[in-house]
Design goal:
The chain has 115 residues and is mostly beta strands. Helices cover 0% and strands 58% of the residues. The strands form two sheets. Strands 2, 4, 5, 6, 9, 10 and 11 form a seven-stranded mixed beta sheet that branches. Strands 1-3-8-7 form a four-stranded antiparallel beta sheet, with no helix packed on it.
């Protein structure tokens, strides 16, 4: 089992910044994929960004150039630095940990961007 604890959500103004953190604990494998997904009201959950344990990143087109995902393997923690926030970034953000065949989710943290 893997537990994920997210923090850092909240309210920001358009153009502002927020930083999300997600700490993983439990049966952590050294080779894994961690990432952030989000779900806005009435919409499906969508990928925001992922990062492999070796540091390879992947971003949704909608956040490229504005969001940065990073991780500290020694702390089993992944971060999402969100800059130039837009109202359409408003959603519940979920941390994900994947190592085949296991897939775990955090409880979610609300991000609200006011116009």
């Amino acid at each position: 089992q893997v537990q994920l604890v997210e923090s850092g959500g909240g309210l920001a103004q358009t153009g502002g910044s927020l930083r999300l953190s997600c700490a993983a604990s439990g049966s952590i494998f050294s080779i894994n994929l961690m990432g952030w997904y989000r779900q806005a009201p009435g919409k499906q959950r969508e990928l925001v960004a992922t990062i492999t344990s070796s540091g390879r990143t992947n971003y949704a087109d909608s956040v490229k150039g504005r969001f940065t995902i990073s991780r500290e393997n020694a702390k089993n923690t992944v971060y999402l630095q969100m800059n130039s926030l837009k109202p359409e970034d408003t959603a519940v953000y979920y941390c994900n940990y994947y190592t085949h065949p296991r897939d775990y989710w955090g409880q979610g943290t609300q991000v609200t961007v006011s116009s």
